[in-house]
């Protein structure tokens, strides 16, 4: 191996390291100083300065308490449980809710709280799931699958932030696979994604067996996208490649693939051509040709394109025609203008513009063709390819606010398909 390639590998390992997130994600643009309050419908029992999550993981539990909850080693069974992320000092609900909506608001610190293990019993998990669904008006699950070099804690913190700003609807569920969470574990993490597929399939089947769930929405970041698409495809094949049967079984709602570290050719041949994209209600891809982590990942693969760095401006005509004419249910949002730190890889939570668009998708089910509420830049000659800018919804117009209030009244909880 050349010295240049060794340096590149070391660099990508460092890029994909997330560090320790100790503050909640920035307030999404559509809430900051606009008068929209995502917390106005949070039940009194959930108006707590901590966020309670359910989790499923095939990591080994941490025996020493460090790292928090679960370490980087693999387990051959699934551990279910519940954990808490504490916001601020854990006592001040207004400070971690409505105060964050002020135009000049600061941020809120995060720290890990309690971890409760259910062991490998999915019965206890399903009981906890039902109790939370019964207490929620919205009967949905938000399932988050993290990417490379994420600890259990970092993944939990990210899900906590997204679910908090969504207004805490339904049930937040973390699936955490055994990332090594160290710079030398990059190649091992690739294998661990494959290792985790069987367990993630089992989690999806456990959710599908719970009749009280209306929809399972998924956010998959980086290599988490490969885990999700592979698992769904394998379940689809077990159903005889019958799209209607797999849709009815999994009840997937919105699937968001952010900065997907997946080969573009694989997406075309194993996802699109096999109809996997038709299983969820809708799929949204956030891509950026300036994603430093994925550009280095592409380099290590001899230039093979990654979905998350798809250049929609440079897309050749056959591929553009594929997405525009033949690919149903898939929107591609170009976030190349978004800069969040030196590598712009976690922009789905770090950018208040991108997170605002995700709020519109997950909380309000606003489709791409509603150009009033989602005023994304339209690419010439395209219908499903859009571009998002850093100022997106930073200072929404009066027309937008009026339309948003009307939409909230009639679309806050999407009907079950």
Number of alpha- plus pi-helical segments: 13
Low-confidence stretches: 12-21
Number of strands: 11
Alpha carbon gyration radius: 20 Å
Derived structural class: alpha/beta
What's the order of the H and E elements?
HEEHEHEHEHEHHEHEHHEHHEEH
Describe the structure.
- 35% of the residues lie in helices and 20% in strands.
- The chain has helices at 3-16, 93-96, 122-134, 152-165, 186-208, 224-238, 243-250, 264-272, 292-300, 317-326, 347-350, 352-362, 398-411, and strands spanning 50-61, 70-87, 110-119, 140-145, 171-176, 215-221, 252-258, 282-287, 330-334, 377-378, 385-387.
- Helix 1 (3-16) packs antiparallel against helix 9 and helix 5 (186-208) packs across helix 6.
- The longest helix has 23 residues, at 186-208.
Secondary structure layout plus pairing:
Blueprint: H1 3-16, E1 50-61, E2 70-87, H2 93-96, E3 110-119, H3 122-134, E4 140-145, H4 152-165, E5 171-176, H5 186-208, E6 215-221, H6 224-238, H7 243-250, E7 252-258, H8 264-272, E8 282-287, H9 292-300, H10 317-326, E9 330-334, H11 347-350, H12 352-362, E10 377-378, E11 385-387, H13 398-411
Parallel strand pairs: 1-5, 4-5, 4-6, 6-7, 7-8, 8-9, 9-11
Antiparallel strand pairs: 1-2, 2-3, 10-11
Comma- or semicolon-separated keywords:
417 residues, 20% strand, alpha/beta, 13 helices, eleven-stranded mixed sheet, 35% helix, single chain, 11 strands
Task: Describe the structure concisely for a colleague.
This protein is α/β, with parallel strands linked by helices.
């Amino acid at each position: 191996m050349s010295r240049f390639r060794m340096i590149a590998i070391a660099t990508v390992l460092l890029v994909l390291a997330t560090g320790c997130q100790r503050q909640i994600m920035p307030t999404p643009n559509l809430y900051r100083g606009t008068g929209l309050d995502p917390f106005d419908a949070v039940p009194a029992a959930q108006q707590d300065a901590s966020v309670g999550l359910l989790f499923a993981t095939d990591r080994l539990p941490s025996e020493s308490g460090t790292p928090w909850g679960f370490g980087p080693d693999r387990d051959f069974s699934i551990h279910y449980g519940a954990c808490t992320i504490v916001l601020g000092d854990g006592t001040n609900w207004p400070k971690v809710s409505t105060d964050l909506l002020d135009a000049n608001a600061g941020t809120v610190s995060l720290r890990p709280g309690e971890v409760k293990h259910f062991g490998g019993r999915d019965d206890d998990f399903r009981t906890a799931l039902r109790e939370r669904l019964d207490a929620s008006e919205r009967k949905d699950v938000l399932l988050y699958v993290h990417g490379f070099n994420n600890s259990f804690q970092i993944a939990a913190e990210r899900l906590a932030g997204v679910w908090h700003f969504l207004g805490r609807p339904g049930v937040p569920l973390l699936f955490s696979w055994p990332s090594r969470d160290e710079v030398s574990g990059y190649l091992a993490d690739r294998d661990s994604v494959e290792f985790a597929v069987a367990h993630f399939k089992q989690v999806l089947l456990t959710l599908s067996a719970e009749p009280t769930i209306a929809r399972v929405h998924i956010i998959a970041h980086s290599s988490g996208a490969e885990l999700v698409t592979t698992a769904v495809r394998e379940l689809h094949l077990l159903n005889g490649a019958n799209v209607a049967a797999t849709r009815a079984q999994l009840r997937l709602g919105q699937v968001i693939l952010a900065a997907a570290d997946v080969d573009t050719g694989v997406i075309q041949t194993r996802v699109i051509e096999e109809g996997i994209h038709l299983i969820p209600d809708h799929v949204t891809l956030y891509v950026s040709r300036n994603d430093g982590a994925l550009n280095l990942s592409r380099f290590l693969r001899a230039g093979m394109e990654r979905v998350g760095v798809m250049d929609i401006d440079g897309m050749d005509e056959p591929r553009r025609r594929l997405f525009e004419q033949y690919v149903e249910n898939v929107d591609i949002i170009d976030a190349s203008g978004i800069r969040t730190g030196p590598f712009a890889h976690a922009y789905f939570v770090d950018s208040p513009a991108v997170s605002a668009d995700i709020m519109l998708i997950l909380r309000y089910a606003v489709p791409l063709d509603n150009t009033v509420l989602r005023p994304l830049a339209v690419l010439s000659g395209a219908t499903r390819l859009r571009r998002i800018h850093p100022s997106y919804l930073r200072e929404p117009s009066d027309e937008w606010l009026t339309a948003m209030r009307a939409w909230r009244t009639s679309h806050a909880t999407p009907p079950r398909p």
